Amino acid sequence: MKRLLFITGLLLAITIIPVKAQNKKENRFEKEFQKTLALVNSDKFTVKFYIATPTVQTLFTPPGAGNNIDIDPKNCYLWVQDSLVKANLPYFGEGSVKSGSQLDTISFQNILFSRTVKVYWEGKKKAIAYQLTIVSGGDVYYLNMHIQYDGTCYLYFSDRKRSPISYVGQIVKRKTDMPSPGLQ
Predict the structure, then answer these.
(1) pLDDT, position 183
(2) Mean of the pLDDT values across residues 60-75?
(3) Alpha-carbon dihedral sign for residues 50, 64, 173, 142
(4) Mean pLDDT throughout 14-39?
(5) Higher pLDDT, 47 or 183
(6) Are strands 165-173 and 44-54 parallel, antiparallel or unpaired?
(7) Coil, helix or strand at residue 128
(8) Which residues contact 108 (CB under 8 A, 6 or more apart)?
(9) Can you give the residue range of the structural domain that contains 111?
(10) Radius of gyration of the chain from Cα atoms?
């Protein structure tokens, strides 16, 4: 009888401890997600990008399968304040214009044409789909951003003149009202 009670107690302990650890992890993910969602909903944030991936579009290669290029987050950013969006993104894809030692950049400061924010489940964690459309000087920029619970951002940028390119970065709270050339 004592043996049966011991085995039952041991089995209960083995099943309860992992459940508590799982709940702690889920609570941590939820807290991080709520911070990120509050930052996105504030419409006052900066995304600093550190990796660019030019898309390769061939018959056998899926989009976004190009080489990763490390970039300086101080000079590569997307800045949002309410309906104003400013971006400075280096461009490495097809259709890039290089003059001397200068790389082509995607640079604009305009008012939003449209914005969509949706929360969705990615496995057991929540994520945010953030889409922006900006009209600037006869061109239309489409920015589709996937923001993970911890603030990691994946931006897919496309417009009418260039091949699409994607970036990886981190969303951070903005410290100033207007970005300087070196950005905060």
Answers:
(1) 42
(2) 70
(3) positive
(4) 77
(5) 47
(6) antiparallel
(7) strand
(8) 85, 86, 87, 134, 136, 141
(9) 32-173
(10) 22
